[in-house]
Design a protein that fits this description.
By secondary structure, the chain is mainly alpha-helical. It has ten helices and no strands. The termini are far apart.
């Protein structure tokens, strides 16, 4: 009887291990490579600010530096509350970050390092593996999310894309 119970426990344990070891199906497996490559090209074209052919965290740092310089109207190397307010109209990443939250050292001004510490929400959400590079798999998730949100299907059927602002504008697949 003791051997039977041991064998039964061993058999059930083996079945559980096999069931748990099954791989979860890849949700991006059925996406045509040409769509993924296009999404990767489009994302890279939009975000590759340093010209290295990749969209990376380095590009976001460069973006933050450019934004900071544009906002710093008096060129003193710090943003006042008034200067900082303008970023909410330019970059949605800052919508939930009040001035006092970004002003980490509480000096009543924001320096470049504090400003750059606010991560870019779109880039962070797209970089699924958190390696600071938007790669093929990240682009596959862009296409998957667009499909889930219905972006592309209705527009192709109607022959137009609502992401176009005016006739002749380029499409921004990440808006």
């Amino acid at each position: 009887m003791h051997i039977f119970r041991t064998l039964l426990i061993l058999a059930v344990s083996s079945l559980l291990l096999v069931a748990c070891a099954k791989k979860t199906p890849d949700p991006t497996a059925d996406i045509p490579p040409d769509l993924v490559n296009k999404a990767l090209r489009d994302f890279t074209q939009r975000w590759d600010l340093d010209g290295d052919g990749k969209a990376t965290c380095g590009d976001i740092a460069l973006l933050r530096e450019r934004q900071f310089m544009r906002l710093d109207s008096n060129r003193d190397g710090r943003l006042s509350p008034l200067e900082y307010r303008a970023i909410n109209f330019e970059d949605n990443s800052f919508v939930f970050f009040e001035f006092k939250t970004v002003d980490i050292d509480q000096t009543a001004s924001i320096e470049l390092a504090e400003f750059s510490a606010v991560s870019h929400s779109l880039f962070r959400g797209t970089d699924k593996d958190n390696d600071c590079v938007i790669g093929y798999r990240d682009a596959a998730f862009i296409v998957l999310n667009n499909r889930r949100n219905g972006i592309g299907a209705r527009e192709r059927a109607e022959g137009e894309d609502p992401r176009r602002r005016r006739k002749g504008d380029e499409i921004d697949p990440f808006e």
